[in-house]
UniProtKB/TrEMBL annotation:
<comment type="similarity">
    <text>Belongs to the ARG7 family.</text>
</comment>
<dbReference type="Pfam" id="PF02519">
    <property type="entry name" value="Auxin_inducible"/>
</dbReference>
<protein>
    <submittedName>
        <fullName>Uncharacterized protein</fullName>
    </submittedName>
</protein>
<dbReference type="GO" id="GO:0009733">
    <property type="term" value="P:response to auxin"/>
</dbReference>
<dbReference type="InterPro" id="IPR003676">
    <property type="entry name" value="SAUR_fam"/>
</dbReference>
Length: 105
């Protein structure tokens, strides 16, 4: 793994930490929506910004890393609406996470 990819992953982890920290949450979020189980993280997908909670193991998968790179190119690390937003359709994201889930089993 190259140094640039490691630096990018470190930046993504910092952003993810800010996204999931209690002080970074909006006041209008419900407490159920703000809860993310240990070992998981939340992403927002598609134009409607539908929220998905996925296992952190996905971060190590090349296809998911491609999505993160795409998100970085699209939004950078300081997205104005907050949260980690993935710029793909919900159908594509569901297909990808289904594939990743089946490979973990």
């Amino acid at each position: 793994m190259g140094i640039i990819r490691l630096v990018g992953m470190a930046e993504a982890k910092k952003k993810l930490g800010r996204t999931l920290s209690p002080r970074g949450r909006k006041n209008n979020e419900s407490s159920d929506e703000a809860v993310v189980p240990k070992g998981h993280f939340a992403v927002y997908v598609g134009e409607a910004r539908r929220r998905f909670v996925v296992p952190i193991e996905y971060l190590a998968h090349a296809l998911f890393q491609d999505l993160l790179s795409w998100a970085e190119q699209e939004f950078g690390y300081e997205h104005p609406t907050g949260g980690l937003t993935i710029p793909c359709s919900e159908d594509y994201f569901l297909s990808l996470t289904s594939l990743l889930s089946s490979q973990q089993s």
